[in-house]
Amino acid sequence: MKKAISSRQNPLFRRIREAIRDHAGEIALEGPKQVADAIAAGWRPLAVVARSRGHAVAQQEIELTAELFDALSETKNPQNVIALFERPVTNARDILGRRDTIAIALDGVQDPGNVGTIVRLAAAFDAAGVLLLPGCADPFGPKAIRASAGAILNVPVASITPRELLDAQVPLVVADMHGATADPPARDAVLVFGNEGAGVSDELRRAASAIAIPMSDRVESLNVASSAAILLSRSFASR
């Protein structure tokens, strides 16, 4: 058995650390279930590292000392395996081209937990995918990946500019507490959710219809992920 990697200067350690921190060209998934699910979904690992446990690991795994692995781990209790993958690339046109359901657009949603949760909701309610307007948290960051509970493996996600979204000429529906009380569309539309504080940009709001969620006056508003869950479930139920 090869000796476990123990140096922070090791190129593979530094490469994985960069993927965890920047998640630009490459991303890292932590935990045996996440890694196995990604491979089952057709993702091909560039490298798999395991936390040294004092015995042989799977043939494809490279051991890191416990200290080095724990320095990479983003979870409270290290999950013993991290795999490096190429970051998936999806074209926004492919998401917008599916008209039998709705697409989701996020406009400046900054909390990675909210972004990851909405990716999971996109899977649960069969949305075409998630379009990310400027200012959104990265859905391939560690916190967003965990919040998606694996849904990031099979939900198309793509960046888009406001102009590209407007030029697509797909009906836009904005979730807005001041909008009309109406059912969300079931298909052939983009459901837009805005920034946690500022909401949807004026540019998109002017081009969209706005719908509200009827609710008690005991609360002023709902979290963006809670709003997405309600509207997406209603859209799915009407198909």
What is the topological layout?
Elements: H1 11-22, E1 26-30, H2 32-40, E2 47-51, E3 61-64, H3 66-72, E4 81-86, H4 92-96, E5 102-107, H5 112-124, E6 130-132, H6 142-148, E7 157-159, H7 162-167, E8 172-181, E9 189-194, H8 202-207, E10 209-212, H9 224-237
Parallel strand pairs: 2-3, 5-6, 5-9, 6-7, 8-9, 8-10
Antiparallel strand pairs: 1-4, 2-4
* Annotated CATH architecture of the largest domain: 3-Layer(aba) Sandwich
Please state the average pLDDT score. Answer: 92
Biggest pleated-sheet summary: 6 strands, parallel
Helix content: 25-40%
β-strand percent reads: 15-25%
Q: How many helices in DSSP terms?
A: 9
Overall CATH class of the largest domain: Alpha Beta
The chain-level structural class is: alpha/beta
Radius of gyration over all CA atoms, rounded = 20 Å
Dominant shape = elongated
Task: Report what the structure shows.
By secondary structure, this protein is of the alpha/beta class. Helix content is 33%, strand content 22%. The protein folds into 2 domains: 11-86, Ribosomal protein L30/S12 (60s Ribosomal Protein L30, Chain: A), CATH 3.30.1330; 92-237, 3-Layer(aba) Sandwich (Alpha/beta knot). The chain contains 9 helices and 10 strands. The strands form 2 sheets. It has a 6-stranded parallel sheet. A 4-stranded mixed sheet has the order 1-4-2-3, sandwiched between helices. Helix 6 (142-148) links the parallel strand 6 (130-132) and strand 7. Helix 5 (112-124) packs parallel to helix 6 (142-148) and helix 5 (112-124) runs parallel beside helix 9 (224-237). The longest helix is centred in the C-terminal third of the chain and has 14 residues, at 224-237. The model has no long low-confidence stretch (mean pLDDT 92).
